[in-house]
Amino acid sequence: MKNMKKTDRRVRKTRTLLKNGLIKLMKEKSIKEITVQELVDEVDINRSTFYLHYKDIYDLVEQLEQEVFDSFKMLINDFGEKKEDEKFLIALYQNIENYGDLAQALISSHGDMSFVHRLIMTIRGEIAPYVEDIITQKSDIQNEYIYEYCLFGTLGLIKKWMDRGFQETAEVMAKVTNQLLIENINQGNVSHG
User: Fold this and answer.
1) Which of 5, 91, 101, 182 is the most buried (most CB within 10 A)?
2) What is 57-188's CATH superfamily?
3) pLDDT single digits (tens) 25-38
4) Which UniProt keywords apply (predicted)?
């Protein structure tokens, strides 16, 4: 049992080194341009050690992305139907902040567009009920535009917050997001007959 904990700790340490090394390299170049050799040189481990954990760079990226999505799924499941609450937005921003450097790297110009697309689809599915609760006058076309506006507005806020180095607290960002969503949706609740 004692030996198993030691191994687990070493595995976690190695994976953390590889994750941090990948994030550092992604600030300079795209995932496609990063080689296993370059990454292992960056973190000072052997190639064979890398291959004990991952098949290739893409496998590493995929597992890191899955870790982020699993945390989002847990958050979403924890809140159930109560996602219209500002507490959900606070938890969402806290979750993003927990994955700060990794999330920044993945959505950057050197990141993975499939991750960005998956993120958009996940957020789209989660804000739909929130937006529906706020909309008072519903037309299908109007709803479609409102959803897109809220989705990309929220993503824009998240991206800007990351770019600013998470200067504002999750609570402040949740309040700003909530205010902007409600104000803009309410302004959009006019008849366009």
Assistant:
1) 91
2) Tetracycline Repressor, domain 2 (1.10.357.10)
3) 998 999 999 999 99
4) DNA-binding
